[in-house]
Specification:
single chain; alpha+beta; Elongation Factor Tu (Ef-tu), domain 3; OB fold (Dihydrolipoamide Acetyltransferase, E2P); 6-stranded antiparallel barrel; 37% strand
């Protein structure tokens, strides 16, 4: 029995030691830092670009608005939106407007006015005949006085009086003839007021005015698509060349200071359309106020972009586009995703993956945009960095997240 007691103690000790080791192993497994799944990216050498991204719309460089030159009746247009026209083609036809309808009372008044004007014309004609006879008499008297004066039968003063009487009769006849013309015009005016324009079927109306296209292009808009009466200066249709487009991009006035004329621009019309390339042609000098989607008033400036006519053939006036205006570019820059940077006081740092652990590293950057940052010091090409590190600590085990 005495020999068995040490053996039992030895066994208890081994069992206890084994239990202690197992408990320690379980505690280590349970409380050791577990690797977290992270997104990573590789530091690389590439071109660094800063750009302003805004939306805008396309518009024609030259739009022609065909307007009515005077009040008239517009015949029903034969053109439709999108039809091709050439310079000189007829695009609209105007005819005189028919006078207003005449009621019975007004017709009676106008008829009486015609009668009065006719009577005045007859009186003027009779006066002309009377004065023609008086002129003939005065002419004979003047001729007789001239003969008598040459024979010294009358004094020269009598001859002069006869000549003056003939001239007076001539002037009186001229006045009577002018009054007769005025009476003729008054009669014609009274008859015109009484008449009504009723052209016969198939007879072209007098005074047809055809408006022609000033350029080769397409019909963009019909302001009037049916026969109607129009006033002078009223727009009838818009014509333009859809091959000559430009983009209007409104940007914040603070961002407009970074843009230079000639800057490269990429435009996207969405969908499967091929991106367009262009150049900034001008920056308008006046800003305007625009309310953003959040209800904030912003001062914005229009930037005009010239497009390649061949690339813009499938697009049209008013199409929406997304624009990317390049304001700065640097070749062979050391780039890291901006999402990898974490601010620490006045410094910036990233977490580099080293042996499956996160190692913080201080960095200095030159420029950055929403996607990447141009690193000046602290990293080298090929380093693997953690994206969106958040509250990660030094030495944290990490594991690359599977896509």
């Amino acid at each position: 029995m005495n020999k068995q007691q040490p053996q039992k103690k030895w066994r208890r000790w081994l069992v206890g030691a084994a239990l202690l080791v197992a408990a320690s192993a379980l505690a280590y497994v349970a409380y050791r830092p577990r690797p977290i799944d992270v997104e990573v990216a590789t530091v690389r050498m590439d071109n660094f670009e800063q750009a302003i991204e805004e939306d805008g719309q396309l518009r024609l460089k030259n739009r022609y608005v065909i307007a009515a030159p005077t009040s008239a009746a517009l015949l029903r247009p034969t053109l439709k939106v999108g039809d091709l026209v050439r310079a000189g083609d007829a695009v609209a036809t105007l005819v005189p407007v028919a006078p207003q309808m005449i009621d019975a009372r007004t017709r009676t008044v106008l008829q009486q006015r015609v009668g009065s004007a006719d009577a005045a014309r007859q009186a003027a004609a009779a006066q002309v005949l009377k004065l023609q006879a008086a002129l003939a008499q005065a002419t004979l008297e003047a001729q007789r006085a001239e003969q008598l004066a040459q024979a010294n039968f009358i004094a020269p003063s009598a001859r002069d009086q006869a000549n003056l009487a003939r001239q007076t009769a001539q002037e009186a006849l001229n006045v009577a003839r002018a009054e007769q013309s005025a009476a003729d015009f008054a009669l014609a005016e009274a008859r015109a007021a009484l008449s009504r324009s009723e052209p016969s079927a198939g007879t072209p109306a007098a005074g047809v005015w055809t408006l022609n296209s000033p350029v080769n292009g397409q019909v963009l808009k019909l302001h009037q698509d049916s026969a109607t009466t129009v006033t002078g200066g009223q727009p009838l249709l818009d014509i333009g060349d859809t091959g000559a487009l430009e983009a209007v991009i409104d940007v914040l006035s603070s961002e407009a200071l970074q843009i230079r004329v000639g800057a490269a621009v990429q435009l996207s019309a969405g969908g499967s359309a091929k991106p367009l390339s262009g150049r900034v042609s001008r920056i308008e000098p006046a800003a305007f106020t625009k309310v953003s989607a959040l209800g904030i008033e912003e001062q914005r400036v229009n930037v005009i972009v010239d497009l390649d006519a061949r690339e813009a053939q499938r697009l049209g006036d008013g199409f929406r586009v997304d624009a990317r205006i390049l304001v700065f570019s640097q070749a062979d820059a050391l780039l890291v995703p901006t999402a990898a940077l974490v601010r620490q006081g006045e410094q910036w740092r990233v977490f580099v993956v080293d042996s499956n652990r996160a190692a913080p590293r201080q960095v200095q950057w030159q420029e950055r945009n929403t996607d990447v940052t141009w690193i000046k010091e602290g990293l080298k090409a090929g380093d693997t960095v953690v994206l969106y590190p958040g509250s990660m600590v030094e030495g944290q085990p990490v594991r690359q997240r599977k896509p």
